[in-house]
Amino acid sequence: MEYYFLNKEKISPDNKLITIDGFQYKHLAIVLRKKIGDIINITDGNLNIYEARIDKISKSEMICEIIQSRYNLYEPDLSITLYISPLRNSDRFEFAIEKCVELGVKSIIPVITERTLLKSGINIAKTERINRIIESAVGQSQRCYLPKFENSLSFMELIDHSECKLNKIVLYEFSENNDKELKYKFEKELCIFVGPEGGFSDAEIELLKLNNWIEYSLGKRKFRAETAAIVAVYDFVNKLYI
């Protein structure tokens, strides 16, 4: 059964009540035509899941009674941060984010590199749309953690941002490192960096290596940037932790 995301302010475990309004109310009451007595699953995006029964439907909100609550179902043990350069085709960029969320990433950070075509980064309207996509992907894949979509970083800001991170992989098509056992060497936390359509410059790769990023190739086949992100997340996380 699909999960529906609500901010924790709308959930009262002590009173065993959930109040659904706004976008989720319209989706449940108008689009899905949920009725009194129907059972739905709600998550607060912070690992809590609530099985609830719809008790009341008005013109603007839905009141549900919590039947039971559960905690941290099926979330990967490995916490993955995806650094990804915005793509010229916004549909493909959104597709990559959607699928990586379904596969288990914990946070997503856009990075403006030398060859990134969209130098302005992600504007407010686009950020709001992406957050909606993330919420939908969380519900569809029955995740109970809501990944964070962070503000864009410049390449040099990325270097500083990731300085204290221990496990860092940069996908680089010209790398000779495609050790299939590499993914078994990481525990708890991993950063993956995916570049733009034109790839990384030589200078960027050298600077990343100087800052303890491990260059890695997904193999002989050349992937689009959005495909590489999805394949990498699956390879490094879900084969081991789902």
Low-confidence stretches: none
Task: Please give the CATH class of the largest domain.
Answer: Alpha Beta
Q: Can you count the helices? A: 6
Strand-and-helix sequence, N→C? EEEHEEEEHEHEEHEEHEH
CATH fourth-tier homologous superfamily of the largest domain: SPOUT methyltransferase, trefoil knot domain
Number of strands: 13
The residue-averaged pLDDT reads 92
CATH architectural arrangement of the largest domain? 3-Layer(aba) Sandwich
Main structural class: alpha/beta
Radius of gyration: 20 Å
The shape, in one word, is elongated
Structure commentary:
The structure is a single chain. It is elongated and about 60 Å long. The protein is built from six helices and 13 strands. The mean pLDDT is 92. The strands form two sheets. Strands 7, 8, 9, 10, 11, 12 and 13 form a seven-stranded parallel sheet that branches. A six-stranded mixed sheet has the order 1-4-5-6-3-2. Helix content is 31%, strand content 27%.
